[in-house]
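Subject: Sanity check before I submit

Could someone independently write out the C-alpha cells for this chain? I want to compare against mine line by line before I put it in a report. The sequence has 500 residues.
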Amino acid sequence: MLLGVDAGNPDLLLRWSEDGSLPTLRALRARGMTCRLEGPPGCGDDGTWATVYTGVSPATHGRFYYRRLRPGSYSLPSFADGDLCHEPIWATLGRAGKRVAVIDVPKSPLPATLNGVYLGDWLVHGRDHAAPVAFPEHFARETIDRFGPAPESLCGFSQPSLDAAGYDGMLERLETSTGMKRDLCLSLIDREPWDLFFAVFKEAHCAGHHGWHLHDRSHPDHPPDLAALTGDPLLRAHQAIDSAMGDLIARAGPDTTVIVFSALGMGPSRGLARLLPEILDRLCPSHRPQVASVRRLLKPLAARLIDLAGGRGRRALRRIAGAAGTSHRAGQPAFSIEPSEHVSGIRLNLAGREASGLIEPGAEADAFCARLSRDLLDIVDPETGERLIDDVVPIGRLYAGPLLSHLPDLLVFWNLSRRATSAASRKIGLIRSPAGTPRTGAHVPGGLLVAAGGGLEAGLTAPPRPVEDLAATVGALLGVALPGCEGTPLPGTAPGGPIG
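---
Independent answer below. Compare away.
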C-alpha cells in the first residue's frame, strides 16, 4: 500500500508524529523505518510526481514541469499524457499479472489498458484533464455517482482574500474531500485483494498554498487575530489525512507493507522566480526589440483580462498571449521557464537546436553561460544587499538521459532564506516583482518516507533516499523487475502478500 501526502512538509510530518498530533504516522514510524526523500533537482510537483511513478529522472521520462519544451520549437504547450516517455510502474506490474488500484496519483497519464483500476484528476491539486478520467472508463462516472464530484477548490495561482469563515469553509471542503477518498479506497480494498494499492491525498497541498501564513507565525503576512480564529489550517488538513490513512491501513490488514510518503515539501513563498523573465530581458536583450516592447506593454493588461475573462474568452486570450510569448522567445538569446517555485530554468536559443538559434553550440554557448551565470550571481536584494541567487548550474551536471536536450540548459537556485520584492545589480538596474498576490505557501525541495512491513527494520532512521527508490521498492516487494528503473529498493525489502 503506497499512500501519498501531496506536498506534506517533512519537518511538520516528523514533529506532528512525534507529539501525537498524527497518531497513524506515529504508529507507523514505531514499527517501521523513516527517511528523508530527495526529489529530482530543480523540479516542482509535475516532474517530481512523474519520477515517483516511473522510477526514472526527467531526463528519461521527459516531464520536467507542467509545460513541455522540445528542440525546434518556442511554444510551451501543456504537458499531455502522450508526451511521457517512460511507462508508470503500474503498467509494468499489470503486465506481470499483478492487480493494481491507482487513485488520484497527480500528473499521471490515463492508461489505455490496465490489470486493475485507475482514477485520475478526481480529488487532486492541479488537473491534467478537464474532468476525472478512469480505466475502465465507467469507473469515473461510478465514483462520482456514488461518492460525489470534487468540492469547490481555491487552489489557484493567486491568494484568495478570505475571512475566518472563508478559511473554515475551505478547510471543511478539504476535510470532505479527504473523507470521500477514504470511502472510495475502503470500498476498493473490500472489493478484491490487490497487489499494489496506490492512493494520494491532495489536501495538504491546498492547505499549504493558501494557509501557510496562518500556520507560520514568522511569516511577514501572518495575521494573529485571524489565525486565532482559524487555528492552524495545515495541522487540520494533515490530521484529516492521518485519520483517513489509519482507516485504510487497518482495513488492508497486518500483512500489508505500508509506505506513506511526501515527495515534495511546502514552505513559505518567496516569490523570487517571478523576477527572472524581466532579469533576462535586461541581461539578454531580444533581437526583436519591437516585439519585446509591445509584449512588455501589453503583458500586464493581458494577465488582467485573462483573470477577468471566463470560458472561451479566457482560452482565446491565453492562446493569443501564448503566441506573443512564442514570438518573443524566438528573439531572445536565452529565455526563462518555470519548473518550480524554488528553482528557475533558462533555455538557450541554440543554433541547430532551436528554430531560429542565436547562439552557436560549443565555445560560444559555454562562454555565454559563464557570463550569464556571473551576472545572475551579482544580483542582490536592494533592501538588504543579500544575494538573491545561491547558484546557477548547467543541467548536464545534474542529469543524464536520452531527453536531456528537452530540459532547461541552466537551473537558477534562488536564495530561499527570505522573501524579496525586487532585484538589483549594476547590469539590470532595479526590477520590482510583477503585480499580483502570490500564494503564501510554495513548494520546497525534500520529502519524507515512512514504511513498515516487508522485512523493513522497525524504528530505523535511514539516510536520505532519492524518490526513484519508491518505484524500485514496490518492484522488489512484488518480485517484478522494472526495466530502466534508476532507483534502489529500501534496505530489508522482502516480497509481501496481497492487500485486503
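---
OP: Matches mine. For the report I'm noting this point. The longest strand covers residues 33-38.
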